[in-house]
Amino acid sequence: MTRFVALLRGINVNGITITMNDLRGTFQALGHTGVETVLASGNVLFDTDLTDAAALKAQIERALSGRFGYEAWIVLIDTDSLARVVRDFPFDPGRDGWHPYVLFGSVPAVLGELAAEAPGLDPAVERVASGDGVLYWQVLRSVGITSPFSKITGKARYRSTTTTRNLRTLDKLLAAPPAR
To answer: Which of 30, 40, 101, 177 would disulfide-bridge 137, Cβ 3.0–4.6 Å?
Structure first.
């Protein structure tokens, strides 16, 4: 049995509203156990015996699209890998006045394309570093989603393959007790 996190993109914004009870129910209907949601932004922890991550991702996306009537995209990561991602955050996560983020991607080439933007960024405003299957990003709070990197990652062509989470959210996911 493997514990996974499904990171959904684009729910509870732009008219796509999904209750956490309905979201849990969808994962349970697929036969997954230990299903828990963390926050209302599309973070689902669950256990499964399935080992083919690509097939699992496709199964979940189909179920979400069918149940909620939108084009669902997720990034899927097991909790051991997530713990490594959090542990390897290369910047000071407690730096005063800064937000620590991790950008997850399901297509390595897309992460490479986004990483190629990093050298042109102003390090006094934001910094990006490559990790194992992720990009680490730290940005001034006062700049936030108006930063150049945020504008790049928000482009429509990246929506189906990437999602960003604050490091504090990832800590909450890792600290969540298993469902009963």
So the answer is: 101
